[in-house]
Amino acid sequence: MKKEFLKFSAAALLALMLVPQVQAASVSVTMTQTNVDEFLPDGLDYLSVTISDGLDGAIDFSVEILSLLTDLNAGSDFGIQEFTLNLGNSAASVADFLVPSGWFAREFVPAGTFNGFGDFDIHLKGTDSTRQQPLEFSIVDVVGDTVFDYVSSLSTGSAAEGNVLFAARLAG
After folding, report:
1. Residues of the chain with pLDDT under 50
2. Which of 54, 60, 72, 79 has its CB surrounded by the most CB atoms within 10 Å?
3. Is 15 left (phi over 0), alpha (psi -120 to 50) or beta?
């Protein structure tokens, strides 16, 4: 039974229930919602997303799996395999994303519902061998962006789990 739980929970898609903590030039939110409520109930802290000002006007993201999930000992390759977000008021495009090696950024077109959490502007994706913990990426070369541009727009469209700021897929 425990083995099945780990496999199922490791593949959970998590989404955000907005709980911002604002500091100078950064904002942090906690992802507290899953699409597998029977194993991972909503309302617990599963991931954190920190968005901060980077060098030369970059906007840096760090998405970290929190201890509630890392303590499950799901496997050595457990990590973030996909992450989605909206651009909000930003003028950024897919070309402005610097992602880890083996990952890519693409527009979520045609709009695809991210497993119950709605439609997003941007979809970041790695492979089984490039899962990240933490996932760190940057948006560069966009003048006038602030960290708050990226927490101003919820997913759109049909969202059985509710419209959210971000969603992630974990596996391993």
Report:
1. 1-19, 22-24
2. 79
3. beta
Place of tokens 């201890």: 67
Q: Give the domain extent around 126.
A: 2-171
Reported pTM:
0.83
CA angle 104, 106, 109 (to 5 degrees): 155
Q: Are the CB atoms for 80 and 142 separated by under 8 Å?
A: no
Tokens representing 120 are: 């997003």
Instruction: Specify the number of domains making up the chain.
Output: 1
The residue length of the chain stands at 172
Give dist(CA 130, CA 68) in Å, integer: 22
Encode pLDDT of 38-56 as tens digits.
788 888 889 999 999 998 8
